[in-house]
């Protein structure tokens, strides 16, 4: 078996993940191969070497500190919008930017908003006006003729513009 | 003694005392796990607080499908990884020492053993940093937290076979990286 494959088995050996038959295979190879023997020693030492990194002892107040953090966060959440409003500090740059947007918005609305195009009167509109007034006049005379059967109607106007 | 799951279910029902009990059982392990993951002593307690805060906030949705500790360490891993990814890269040596909280207590005599352990800690951290994330997590949980392959597979959400592969590959890389220190002996090997 090649040394490369044996090294993989050595690591599994040290991890305790090797079958008995494979263990025998590794033992036999290591006995005759100095390089793999050294690798085997290093592999066996690795886990123990990692113990050189000591544990730390955390503060005894961990739990108390936790509940303090929880109540601080809950108070913050309760404060909500009014708390935010209370702590609001106007920022010059943001205020300037908002004012600029507001002014530009007003000008844009004044130029392009509804009603700004009412004053534009085209020749097409003029024709429409004539057609509508003719139609209005025709409708009025037709209505007068039809209503004549209920007459007599006096449609004359006095000099002052009032109806007699 | 009540199990972690029973305490978590009591927490879900609104019993904060049960959650205090859970924290007492696990906070030391979580702090040390984060410390070894980030190599920053000062931040590790704050990050552990964040881990427990997340667990507490999600207690309402807790379902006892997996072991509590695997869920806890999954959150601890995520918090540690997020912290490492957000940390500034170019710190001065003084800043590194400060954030790690490794400045010695002058009242304690500095022995060869302390110097050896401090040096080894740096070598081990650098070697672990060199590993891909999943190999690092698998090695750390198996070695330092005593997790079984099954438990690590729940944390990493993968098969047991994949966990074994991560551990074996990780161990092979660590043997190569730490070779000079393993050859010396140092008195901590098997």
What does this structure look like?
The complex is a heterodimer of chains A (164) and B (190). Chain A is an all-alpha fold and 164 residues long. Chain A has a domain at 3-49. Chain A is 69% helix and 0% strand. Chain A is elongated. Chain B has 190 residues and is an all-alpha fold. Chain B has two domains: 1-97, RNA polymerase sigma factor, region 2, helix turn helix motif (Rna Polymerase Sigma Factor, Chain: A, Orthogonal Bundle); 104-190, Arc Repressor Mutant, subunit A. Helix content of chain B is 73%, strand content 0%. Chain B has ten helices and no strands. The longest helix of chain B is centred in the first third of the chain and has 23 residues, at 16-38. The two termini of chain B are 35 Å apart. Classes of the chains: A mainly alpha (164), B mainly alpha (190). Chains A and B meet through helix 1, helix 3 and helix 4 of A and helix 2, helix 3, helix 6, helix 9 and helix 10 of B.
Fourth-tier CATH superfamily name of the largest domain in chain B: RNA polymerase sigma factor, region 2, helix turn helix motif
Distance between the termini of chain B: 35 Å
Query: Tell me, what's the shape of chain B?
Result: globular
Assembly state (oligomeric)? heterodimer
Structural class of chain B: mainly alpha
What share of residues of chain A is helical? 55-70%
The class by helix and strand makeup of chain A works out as: mainly alpha
CATH architecture of the largest domain in chain B: Orthogonal Bundle
């Amino acid at each position: 078996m090649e040394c490369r494959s044996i090294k993989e088995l050595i690591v599994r050996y040290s991890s305790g993940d090797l079958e008995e038959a494979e263990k025998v295979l590794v033992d036999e190879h290591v006995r005759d191969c100095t390089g793999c023997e050294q690798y085997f020693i290093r592999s066996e030492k690795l886990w123990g070497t990692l113990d050189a990194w000591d544990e730390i002892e955390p503060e005894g107040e961990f739990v108390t500190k936790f509940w303090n953090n929880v109540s601080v966060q809950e108070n913050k959440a309760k404060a909500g919008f009014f708390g935010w409003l209370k702590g609001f500090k106007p920022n010059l740059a943001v205020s300037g930017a908002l004012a600029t947007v507001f002014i530009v918005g007003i000008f844009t609305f004044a130029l392009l908003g509804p009603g700004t195009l009412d004053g534009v009167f085209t020749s097409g509109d003029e024709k429409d006006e004539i057609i509508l007034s003719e139609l209005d006049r025709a409708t009025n005379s037709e209505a007068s003729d039809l209503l004549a059967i209920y007459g007599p109607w006096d449609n004359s106007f006095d000099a002052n513009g009032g109806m007699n | 003694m009540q199990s972690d799951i029973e305490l978590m279910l009591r927490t879900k029902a609104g019993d904060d005392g049960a959650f205090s009990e859970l924290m007492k059982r696990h906070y030391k392990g979580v702090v040390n796990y984060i410390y070894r993951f980030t190599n920053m002593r000062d931040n590790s307690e704050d990050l552990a607080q964040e881990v427990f805060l997340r667990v507490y906030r999600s207690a309402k949705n807790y379902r006892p499908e997996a072991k509590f500790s695997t869920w806890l360490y999954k959150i601890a891993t995520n918090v540690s990884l997020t912290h490492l990814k957000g940390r500034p890269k170019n710190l001065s040596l003084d800043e590194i020492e400060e954030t790690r909280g490794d400045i010695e207590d002058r009242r304690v005599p500095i022995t060869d053993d302390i110097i050896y352990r401090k040096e080894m800690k740096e070598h081990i951290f650098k070697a672990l940093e060199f590993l891909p994330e999943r190999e690092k997590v698998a090695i750390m949980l198996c070695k330092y937290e005593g997790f079984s392959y099954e438990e690590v597979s729940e944390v990493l959400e993968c098969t047991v076979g994949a966990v074994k592969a991560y551990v074996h590959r990780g161990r092979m890389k660590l043997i190569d990286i730490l070779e000079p220190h393993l050859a010396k002996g140092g008195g901590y090997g098997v």
